[in-house]
Design a protein that fits this description.
heterodimer, A: about 120 residues, mainly alpha, 4 helices, rod-shaped, B: about 190 residues, about 75% helix, globular
Chain lengths: ~120, ~190
């Protein structure tokens, strides 16, 4: 009876290396079932395995993943620098408006003071 | 950031960190955990390596944009859903001859949350009854895989099904079991 519980076991983490080794058939027979059980724990894993199996050159999958991660990092850095630029621009406006108000106040004070 | 250094942090903790300081690098670490799986899912549906790579990049952009605005409780399931829906849109756009009905069925069914069964104490009698209601192929594959601990290849050798049929019988059988159990549990 115990083994049936495994059907809905909480998902154990599946690493990229485990999945890639499985795809390259570099898993020994003892570990095979445990790894397949990890994969079968989620539809996401199962669909991914099916798709990854369709890649012509399995040795390129890790490299492709690495490149996609690099592009993601670039995208995040780009949006961070955009945000920083936007922040600097809005800060510049605040400084300009504060200076203008300050100058107007001084000018108003001087005008009232000397017109007496 | 070196992502391996954050392996001990859960997906939800990464989301919380992002919400507290709005640093998108937290989202980057989270998304990189699923790059390989996303690539595989996109390849499964789009059946083209270049299109699959482009799709992953577009899914990243969408995820970065939406995680800024919405609260997500199960990031992994959410990303899977985003990926499936994105691929479905792509397939619709190119009006491919791929059997859309079959793919639609799969995509609609993924809405069953993985956690819902685990959260309730599983009634093994209910499970065994539900197993009897599965079709013969699914029942055989599920029994050999979970009860007899056979690998996909061994099941394929025993039953004569192809590896793809074995995987799909296990995946669909499991999904049907979940639906049946949820239905039965709700009736109790």
């Amino acid at each position: 009876m115990k083994s049936w519980r495994a059907i809905f076991n909480k998902e154990a983490p599946l690493s990229d290396d485990e999945l890639i080794n499985y795809l390259k058939n570099e898993v020994n027979a003892d570990e095979m079932h445990d790894l397949e059980q990890k994969i079968a724990a989620s539809d996401f894993n199962m669909d991914a395995l099916e798709g990854l199996s369709a890649f012509k050159d399995k040795s390129q999958i890790a490299n492709t993943t690495h490149l996609l991660n690099q592009q993601l990092k670039k995208q995040i850095n780009k949006s961070k620098s955009k945000r920083r630029k936007r922040n600097i621009e809005s800060q510049q406006w605040i400084i300009l408006v504060t200076l203008a108000i300050l100058l107007l106040s001084i000018f108003g004070y001087l005008l009232i003071h000397y017109s007496r | 950031m070196n992502t391996a250094a954050f392996n001990h942090i859960t997906d939800n903790e990464l989301l919380k960190k992002y919400q507290s300081d709005l640093n998108k690098e937290w989202l980057g670490i989270l998304l990189q955990r699923y790059t390989l799986l996303l690539l595989g899912v996109c390849m499964k549906y789009l059946k083209n390596e270049e299109e699959a790579k482009d799709a992953v990049q577009q899914i990243f952009l969408k995820a970065l944009n939406e995680l800024e605005k919405y609260q997500v409780d199960y990031p992994k399931s959410w990303l899977y859903k985003i990926a499936c829906n994105h691929c479905l849109m792509k397939i619709r756009d190119r009006k491919s001859t791929i059997e859309l009905d079959q793919q639609n069925d799969q995509i609609l069914l993924i809405d069953v949350p993985d956690e819902s069964i685990e959260e309730k104490e599983m009634n093994l009698t209910l499970l065994e009854n539900a197993l009897e209601d599965l079709n013969q192929e699914q029942k055989t594959c599920i029994t050999l895989f979970y009860h007899h601990k056979k690998s996909y290849q061994q099941i394929s050798n025993i039953t004569g099904y192809t590896l793809l049929q074995v995987k799909s019988n296990i995946q669909n059988g499991k999904r049907n079991l979940k639906l049946m159990l949820l239905k039965k549990q709700n009736r109790l």
